[in-house]
Design brief:
595 residues; alpha+beta; Heat Shock Protein 90; 5-stranded mixed β-sheet; rod-shaped
């Protein structure tokens, strides 16, 4: 069914205060969070750098302490290595009393002097190739003599170690440099490590003939006494590995084997800091759990978030105050403009101060005053024009109906049907009495229905039982008012054009549709195609000739009530036609008093 046009919905908008608040907050808060993020990153990096530097400093102290003991052990070996008198005596091959005396008066005091030159527990083992010298040693099978005797020495022949792998693989001699730290024999069993070094003939540095071998054993705990994970803190771990990567020593609960060390170092869950011990190839490694840094990072994060949130809260309060101050002024201007848009030009604005808003307020007040004056002048003119247009439209309908009715009366007179002629004249007089209604354009719906019934009484005299009319009127709409003659033209049009055979039925329905009043004139006639319906409501000359009565009713309703009301037609060719008339539910003061 051809619909009735509706009002366009007003486009929603974001209030000025919200825009101002959002823009202000975004322009301030976003930079705050950006600066906060940058500051946070800088602080976190600074903490990491400081922590790394502090740990490296601690590792350097640990290294210095270890190197002191390592250098002290090397110093003991130097006392033997660079002693030319010792090397001569070791190369003196003479058995008997000479050999015994040399051992007792020279070698033994030298060895005691060497181990007594340190306050650490060390085990000195001297192997020499001169078998004329006697052996002096302790039986250390299945015991750790170092734990019993503290500082002592053994003197043995070199043949005792000739078949040992560690001796056979000892590197080629470089004067004053060749030495090794290694766990040999039962060192690993008792937690010891040994400094291995040759004794050579120093009288001829070009040949460096081996005349003996030195092994100085000491406890790992003694060498690495300063390697304590508590100096790093937390769950950190300190690890000493040799030049081959094998684990020598560890401090901390996280590492118990070489496999665990490799897994932890490669997992990425620890910060790894390496320190190479000079001259040894050993590596001091600190494994610091990421949680150590994470805790500091979280503190910095929390501090950054708290500062940013405090800034946001302060800025939000300031932004809210500023936006409310300006938005109140803008909302006053908008509310007045909305009132002007809706036709209320009585609203005025009063601002204190002397700024742009005061100028705008003064201009709007002046505009409203002038517009209101112009509306008052134009209103009367437009009202008179509207009444004149309504009368002209009505005048186009009344003569048309009168012409058709007089033609019918003429036909009755011609055939001598005086009673029907008399009844038709009386109904016509009643119809026009209701139509004129003392010049009123707006009449109660009850009178409009009475007009329709008077009209149909005239038509039923003319067509008798060939015309059937059915009224379905909701009594609750009768007190409301309507522009007169909005139903009769459609009934007349159906009786003129809708016949299908020699009978026709017309239903007149009146009721509610949403909050508006809706009439329907429904016939079971021949119907019409959509092109004919479109032509009735078009502006062409053909439309003015065909269906001008329908179009005029439509224009009268829209002229008086607005474009959202009027006439709509739906039809099924050869079956039916339905005309729908929509008007607002209004009670006109004059119509109400008459009813």
């Amino acid at each position: 069914m051809a619909g009735v046009p509706m009002h366009k919905q007003e486009r929603s908008f974001i209030p000025f205060g919200v825009k101002l608040l959002v823009s202000y907050v975004l322009l301030i808060i976003i930079p705050i969070f950006i600066f906060g993020y940058i500051a946070n990153s800088i602080m976190v990096d600074s903490i990491r750098t400081q922590t790394r530097t502090a740990i490296k400093g601690t590792l350097q102290q640990i290294q210095d302490n270890m190197m002191y003991k390592i250098d002290d052990t090397i110093r003991l070996s130097d006392l033997l290595y660079f002693d030319s008198k010792l090397s001569k005596q070791l190369m003196h091959y003479e058995e008997g009393w000479v050999s015994y005396e040399a051992t007792t008066n020279l070698l033994m005091p030298k060895f005691w002097q060497t181990i007594e030159s340190t306050n650490r527990n060390v085990w000195l083992s001297i192997y020499f190739s001169n078998e004329t010298l006697p052996e002096i040693y302790y039986d250390s099978s299945n015991i750790d003599p170092l734990s019993i005797k503290g500082r002592f020495f053994d003197v043995m022949h070199l043949k005792r170690i000739e078949n040992k792998e560690w001796y056979a693989n000892f590197p080629k001699e470089k004067f004053g440099e060749t030495m090794e730290w290694k766990q040999v024999e039962d060192d690993a069993k008792y937690g010891r490590i040994s400094l291995l070094r040759r004794i050579v003939d120093t009288t001829d540095p070009t040949k460096l003939k081996e005349i003996g071998f030195v092994r100085i054993s000491t406890y790992l705990d003694d060498i690495f006494q300063s390697v304590d994970f508590h100096k790093i803190g937390g769950d950190s771990t300190l690890v000493i590995t040799n030049e081959s990567g094998h684990l020598l020593y560890s401090s901390g609960s996280a590492i118990r084997s070489e496999d665990e060390f490799r897994n932890e170092a490669g997992s990425g869950s620890h910060l790894t800091i390496d320190q190479t011990l000079p001259g040894l190839g050993w590596k001091l490694t600190a494994l610091i759990p990421s949680s150590v840094f994470e805790e500091d990072r979280k503190k910095v994060d929390r501090l950054t978030i708290v500062i940013c949130l405090l800034c946001c809260i302060v800025i939000s309060f300031v932004a809210t105050f500023v936006s409310r101050t300006f938005s109140r002024r803008v909302l006053k201007v908008v509310s007045v403009l909305q009132s002007f848009r809706q036709g209320d030009f009585h609203r005025r604005i009063q601002y204190s101060g002397n700024d742009e808003f005061t100028t705008i307020a003064a201009s709007l007040n002046e505009l409203g005053k002038k517009t209101e004056s112009l509306i008052e002048e134009v209103y009367v003119t437009n009202l008179r024009k509207k009444e004149a247009e309504l009368e002209v439209l009505q005048a186009q309908i009344n003569p048309h109906f009168l012409y058709n009715t007089l033609s019918s009366i003429s036909r009755l007179a011609k055939f001598g049907e005086v009673d029907k002629q008399h009844q038709m004249v009386m109904n016509l007089a009643k119809f026009y009495r209701l139509t004129l209604n003392e010049g009123q354009t707006i009449i109660p719906i009850a009178k409009e229905i009475e007009q329709v019934k008077a009209y149909m009484d005239i038509q039923q005299i003319k067509y008798a039982e060939r015309v059937e009319v059915i009224y379905e009127i909701d009594s609750s709409i009768l007190p409301y008012s309507a522009v007169k003659l909005i139903l009769q033209p459609f009934i007349e049009n159906a009786l003129e054009h809708a016949w299908r055979g020699d009978r026709i039925q017309i239903r007149i329905v009146g009721g509610w549709q949403d909050e508006a009043i809706c009439f329907q004139i429904i016939d079971n006639g021949s119907g019409m195609p959509q092109s004919t319906i479109d032509g009735i409501f078009s502006e062409t000359a053909a439309a003015e000739r065909n269906g001008y009565g329908i179009r005029n009713v439509h224009e009268r309703i829209q002229l008086y009530y607005g474009k959202e009301y009027g006439v709509a037609i739906d039809s099924e060719p050869g079956e039916w036609t339905c005309v729908q008339v929509m008007i607002p539910a209004q009670i006109h003061p004059i119509a109400n008093s008459e009813s």
